[in-house]
Specification:
This protein is an alpha/beta fold. It is built from nine helices and five strands. Strands 4-3-1-2-5 form a five-stranded mixed sheet, with helices on one face.
Length: 208
């Protein structure tokens, strides 16, 4: 299997799960700044021209959530549960995509991507809007995590890898986490995982 990635949010999910599972993947770095994701060869794998992409035999699988689930299922891992918890995991994956990540990701974009890759200042109006949305949904997440080790009971799942993906960048992205003790406790538990702290390969093969 080949996992095409760049050092940004969504590929981080897939790389973290692959490393956690010790999946037999070859990591292929895609140089976004050079437009490697826009080439005909890459678009043949993912017509959306985005990373990550997992190539598993004849399967070209895009979307980080699907890749995480595929890797977990292939490894026979409970990260993608096969009992009633699967619906709960799916709920949190859907909630993250629709509610939490759009705001946390906007702060990541405004404070990190703009500053370090585009060389432009953050948009104050966008930051205010994203911060307001972040607080709204962080309250939901924090309340849910009260008394829980992970998002779905006491067992780590792909939902944790997805919903927590902006938290390693909390300081640089200026995520207002201070009021949310349960989120901070939960993320500290994720930080105990080597695959979470350092999900990307040390040596990068570059996509041609």
């Amino acid at each position: 299997m080949q996992l095409y990635y760049a050092r940004v949010l969504n590929p981080r999910k897939a790389c973290a799960v692959a490393k956690y599972l010790n999946s037999p993947v070859d990591y292929v770095h895609v140089d976004l700044a050079a437009g490697a994701h826009q080439t005909p060869a890459f678009r043949a794998m993912n017509p959306n021209a985005k990373v990550p992409v997992l190539v598993d035999g004849d399967l070209n699988l895009w979307e980080s959530t699907a890749i995480m689930c595929h890797l977990a299922r292939k490894a026979g891992s409970d990260l993608w549960p096969r009992d009633d918890r699967q619906v709960e995991v799916l709920r949190w994956l859907s909630w993250d995509a629709a509610e939490f990540l759009p705001h946390a990701g906007a702060l990541y974009f405004e404070h990190i991507i703009k500053a370090h890759f585009l060389g432009v200042p953050p948009d104050a109006a966008e930051v205010e809007k994203a911060t307001e949305g972040f607080h709204r949904f962080a309250k939901v997440l924090d309340a849910h995590l009260d008394g829980r080790r992970y998002l779905v009971g006491d067992t780590l799942s792909v939902a944790d890898f997805a919903v927590g993906i902006t938290l390693p960048y909390a300081d640089a992205a200026k995520l207002p986490l201070q009021p949310y003790s349960h989120i901070r406790r939960w993320h500290a538990r994720l930080e105990e995982l080597d695959a979470w702290r350092e999900p990307f390969p040390a040596v990068e093969a570059v996509a041609a």
